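Sample entry (114 residues):
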Amino acid sequence: MKKETLGMRLKQAREFNRLTQRQVEEETGVSNTNLSKYESDITSPGFETLRLLADFYNVSTDWFFGITNKPNRILPDELKEYDIKWVSLVSKCKKSGLSPEQVEQIIDVISKVK
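Predicted structure, serialized as C-alpha cells:
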C-alpha cells in the first residue's frame, strides 16, 4: 500500500469538507494555484500556511505528516462552520496590513466574546 503524502492528506481534508480549492482560497487566502501544487506534491506549504490549513480543516499537523492516522480535530457541523469563520477572520486581519500586535489585540477581544 502506498504511503500517503502530505499532498494527498491536504486533498483528503479539503474533499472531506466538500470544498473546492477556490472556496479554500476565499476563506484562507491561500491561492488555489498553491493549493493545487501542495495537493500534487509539487511543492510543500510553509509552516504558517500548514498551520492555517490544519486549523481551517480542523485536523492536526501530525495527521498531515502521517505521524498519526487520526485527524483528531473533527467538530460537529455547527462548530465547524464557526471555526471556518474564525480562521477566515484571523487570516483577513493578518493580510489587512495590521501589525502582529494589532491582530493579537483583535483576537484577544473576540476570544473574550465567544
